[in-house]
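Team,

Forwarding the record for the chain on the shared tracking sheet. I've put the sequence and predicted structure together so nobody has to dig through attachments.
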Amino acid sequence: MLASDSTRPRLTCYVDTPGPSHGERVELSARVLANWVAKAANMLQDDLDAAPATTVGLDLPAHWRAFYWALATWSVGATLVVGPDASTADVVVTMDHRLADRVAQEAGLAVLVTLPMLARASLDTAADVVDEARELATHGDVFAPWEEADARSVAFHDRSGTEAYADVVVSQPDWGSSPRVRVPDRLGPALRAALSAWAADGSVVLVIEPDGDQSARLASEGVTLDLS
């Protein structure tokens, strides 16, 4: 995507969920998305010792922040875990303060994520929990993995099953070239759909907890395929 068109929007996220993020529209180009991914991957590798064979549990909703954490996990060659097993992974990335504290108390590694776009620090972080809002910006904008994952290694595990690195990106020829795909607001299916769209030089739109008819919004975004 960087080589094809680094400035074109690749991930657009609308937050209709009640709360501090309500009404946010976040749009990331390939260049900006790659920057977020590099910072998160550097945090995983440098601070949390993530590498091939490490499991990274993503205890987050379908959200633009979850996308860059997933891509960062794959950048270091680790195994992404989504769903009920996420809380028992080697590294747990969560927005749940209680889960983060419990993981830290059990000598595990936890990253606490605050979802709003302008979050700068959590107000309630245990000493052994990594505060993403405070720490992520300190990491580098370029990432180089210490070790590449084997194609047969597990890349993704969730309720739908397990895929190796060689199989995690699925081509969808029927979607056409450069599709603009609305992905489901469930994390596992959203990530799988996004990988297929990006592999076709496309982009994705995510609407979190949509409120009412989305047809006008999707038309304005130029969505060519609605998978919701």
